[in-house]
Known about the structure:
The protein has 4 helices and 11 strands, in the order βαββββαββββββαα. By secondary structure, the chain is of the alpha/beta class.
Amino acid sequence: MEIACQLNSTVITPADFAFQARAVDVQMEQHWAPAYLDEPWPTIGYATLRGLGAGTFWPLMIVDSLPLNPNALGDHSFVAGLAFGRVLANKDPLDATTLSHEALELRGDPQCNIWMPIPDGRFAARELCDPCENDTYAISVAIGSETRDIKVSDFILPAWFVAGAPGPYSYLDRIDEPFGLSRNGGGYRLIRDSAGNVTSDFGRNCTREHMAEKLANPLSRTYRRGLR
């Protein structure tokens, strides 16, 4: 299985796109996979997805707008047996943060239906970047004779899901406890109670209004989590 990224945007150039996709591929292989002791899915940039074998990839589209989800920078979902993601093109050619976020979360939970138990009897969604979504770091990428430092998203580590486990709890070590949020004030977590109700806990830099929009929007992953 691979994550097949396709550029469908006029905001960034094919060269910029190539560097961004390569950075996420490096992150998946060299950072995420060793941390989770799991198989990385290659993240490959394509001009077109025509000709790729059915059932061998999940598409991740880079687009200029998300008209049905206008307040989002990106999303991923699972509909009719197909996992897919969309990312709003970033005008900064060195910033692949949202692309990284959506690719890692596609890998971590393609069907958006995994919930991990919390000691208080509730469950946390297995969303790998949400708790630290405002934390980023750079990956150096070389293509031909050119090298660029591309920003990608921080992500939580397996210890985040285990009560009492020693840290670190995110790749950048900016979370202080299991099921916690970044100490920098960004990020959130989705929580489901025993009755199936989904709410959100969020850091000081995430507004209550923003989270309420996500919980109420039928096209958001947050809303769909509440249906599972």
